[in-house]
Every structure is written in structure tokens, then in C-alpha cells.
Amino acid sequence: MSYATGLRCRKCGQEYKLQPLRVCDFCLSALEVIYDYRAMFKVVNHEIISRGPRSIWRYRQLLPIDGEPLDIGTGFTPLFKADNLGEELGLHRLYIKNDCLNPTYSFKDRAVAVAVNKAKEFGFDTVACASTGNLAASVAAYAAKAKMRAYVFVPANVEAGKLTSVAIYKPNLVTVDGSYDDVNRLCAELSQKYNWGFININLRAYYAEGSKTLGYEICEQLDWQPPDCIVAPAGSGLMFTRIWKGLQELSMLGLIGPVNTHMYLAQAAGSSPIVHAFETGTLHVHPVTPKTIVSSIAIGNPADGYYALMVARQSGGGAVSVSDEEALQGLELLAQTEGIFAEPAGGVVIASLRKLVARGIVNKDQVTVALITGAGPRTQEVVSYTIRTLKVRPSVESFQEAISLPV
Amino acid sequence: MAKKQVMFTFPRELVEQPIIYHLSHKFQVVTNIRRADVSEDRGWVVLELEGDEREIEAGIAWVKEKGVRVDPVIGDIVEG
Fold first, then answer.
1. Residues near A81 by Cβ (< 8 Å), separated by ≥ 6?
2. How far, in Å, CA of A59 to CA of A62, rounded?
3. What is the CATH number of domain A4-51+108-207?
4. Per-window interface: A 324-363 vs B, CB < 8 A
5. pLDDT tens string A88-110
6. pTM of the predicted structure, to 2 decimals
7. What is the ipTM metric for this complex?
8. B44 CB near a chain A CB, below 8 Å?
9. Which CATH architecture describes the domain A79-105+211-386?
10. Which of A30, A130, A287 sits opposite B78 (nearest CB)?
11. Contact yes or no for A28 and B48 at CB 8 A
């Protein structure tokens, strides 16, 4: 049994029993899972967690899942001290949380793991999502393992290469002949017509909870200390808010001390509605039309934008955007200093961190965690320009000539 | 009868226009506002539209034509 007790509207506070639900019936706002923390407090401690599996399910008492969870090995990804990159950026205590090393190569596995398990508990036989990459692959993979039908909706113009990493799991892959907005609208309508578990619609409250595990792991891997700063990418803003929730919960349960972590949110300048709201000091995240190569976080109307904005403000953190060019430079720097090939969102994080250091906002002695949320190969065409080869004939002389080095 | 939950985002030049009033008069659509925030230079309204599906669609198309951005109330669904 989990300690989840219900759903609560994040805006008006209206409570609901645990069920698949899109939004609050009254004010049409987002919902979140609530728990009996008092009961949870009595059973959760460092020892129990450390004895758990090396996956997100080591924190299962803090997640809204009742039965034995279905698992494909999600979570407990490496957190390591990135001295080479730290030296480049001028940081002495920089850590990388490498979430590329999830089963389908992105942090989405955390959220989907919880959502698909919950879908099974609710009795759905079909799960669905709309995605251009990471989410689609994760849903298809988990559905395969759960022996559930999956419908994955993608805009028709998505590159074939991206579809391969989804198609291999054999979901029902639906290409929608229309714009990004058309796919949004269609899926919103379908979610009301079909009795399916739409991962980020009627299961969104549960889906969100999976991302809390990033916050848990970061603290546990730092020997149960919250870091001074976390820099994370934001598309919908959901993950950013749930890392914060994860830290707050650990503190409330006495697993870490008071949280003084500054949360910094990173977006690509071509799709940066949350950063814009932060910089202009407004409360409303005004929707934009994305125009960036950083496709995994190109969300113009972020569902959790307001809440992400609040976390950035309340934590004494901030929000930074970088150009596509800066993001690619960040991507290269990460690969060439730490050996990690991330998707462009990782480049956004590194380039944003560089800006935060340059502005004197993040200082060299702060324990800083940069979150790398997805691996590069799915979008490798964006860095194909890095290919520079030495062309040689099959002879030693030709090789020596090419490298201009004496033997 | 169908119901549709949407968010209208108004640019500065449309903030003073009674667009929702006209929407419910030009089309057979009941407008039910749930949340809103309107200032002098921009505004948004979260509302439920109820009526015949074709009337709702025609109404939304008219609102968009006026220059209002219309989004699903749950935000963007297509994720990376």
C-alpha cells in the first residue's frame, strides 16, 4: 500500500479520491498527489532506502504505487564530481547527474514508470501520449514490458531517425498530418473520448511524481545533503517543480536537513516563456511559439510554467535562457570534458550554468548539480557538424603526413 | 452537446474588446469562465465552452481569427 491519499487541485485546493483525472473540475487547474506524511514518517528512514533496489523503487514508500512495481531498471543514475567541466566553468564543487543512463536514455522513464504502473492499477489496457521523442520511446518501452497497448501520436514531420527509437517497441505509432498545435488539440480531444491512460493528461498527477526521484537521488548520492544549487532544463516545467517537491519531502521526513537549495531553470531562448516571465517579474507565463533546435524542451505553453516560476523565485534561484548556438557549445563542452553525449537540452544546462557563473550568481565553492536529462544519439544530427576526419591513404607515410607528427 | 475547456490569451490590442460576449452571441455557445487574469496590457481566461461541437469549433475559429491565442487548458501535450 502506498501512502498516497488523494489528489488536490494546486490552485483552489479541491480534493479528489485517487483516480485518473485531467484537471480540477472546478477551476480547471492542475492536480497533484497528496500523501499521509505522518504515516510515511514512521516507516521511511535512510536504512530502509539504502537497502532498496538500485532504481527509483528504492523510494517506493514515497511514490503513489500500491502493488509490486513493474520495472525496466529506471533511476539511480550516476551523480559524479565533474572536475574537468568544473575547471572550465570555474566551479570547484560541480556535480553532474547523468540521467542519460536510464533504460530509454532520458529522465522521462522516471515519470513514465510511475504513470504506467498507475495505469495498470486503474485497470487501463491502453496507454497513450503525444511526443516527438523521449516521452514516446519511454511510453512504448514501458507498455511493452507491461503488456499494454500503446498509442503514440507524433507530428508527421518528425525525423525518421527519432521514430526508430520508438518503433522498435512496436506501439501503435500514429503520425498526425498537421502542425504541432493540431497534434496538441487532437490529443486533448482524444483524451476525453477514449478510456485510455493518457500519460501526461489524465495520469499527469502520477506521471509528475516520478520526477521527484531526481531530487531524492541527488540528496542521497550527496550523502543526504541537499546541494547549494541545482540547474535543470525546463520544457513544461513539471520536472523542475517535482525536484523541488522531492527535496521538500525529504526534509519534512527528516531524511535531510533544511533545504537551502537555489533552483535554476534553463530554457532555450527560442522557447523560453518561463524565463521571460521570471525576467519581467510577471506571474503569468505567456505562451509562445517555439523556435529552437532543442526539441525536447520546446514547449510554448508550459502546463507547469507558473509553478516552475514560483519554485525559481521561492528557492532564491533563477531562470536563464541561452541561444541554440550557446546550447551546442555547451553540448560539445560537456562531451569533450566529461565524456557525456547529451541531447541539446543538456547543452542548454551547461551554457546556462556558464552564464550563472559569469554573472556571479553561482559561485565556485557552492555544491552545484547540473542535470543532464537525456542522451544525444536520438538527436545526433544537430551536432553532425562536429565530424572532422583525417583523410589518409592506407600507408604509414600518408598517416604521418596527415597528423604532421614525426615518428 | 459537447464541452471544451480552453485558455484564451489576449494580446494588448484586444484586452478591451468584449470578445467572449460576442462569442456567446454570434454562436450557440455557453461560455463559463473558471479562472482569469487581465491587466491593461495582456490577459488570459480559462473557460469551458458548451454547445454543439460544430458551433464550438466555429466559435473558436472566429476567436482565433480575431487574434486571440487558443490553447488546450491542460497546456501543451506534445512533449519531447
1. A93, A94, A95
2. 6
3. 3.40.50.1100
4. 345
5. 999 999 999 999 999 999 999 99
6. 0.95
7. 0.89
8. yes
9. 3-Layer(aba) Sandwich (3.40)
10. A130
11. yes
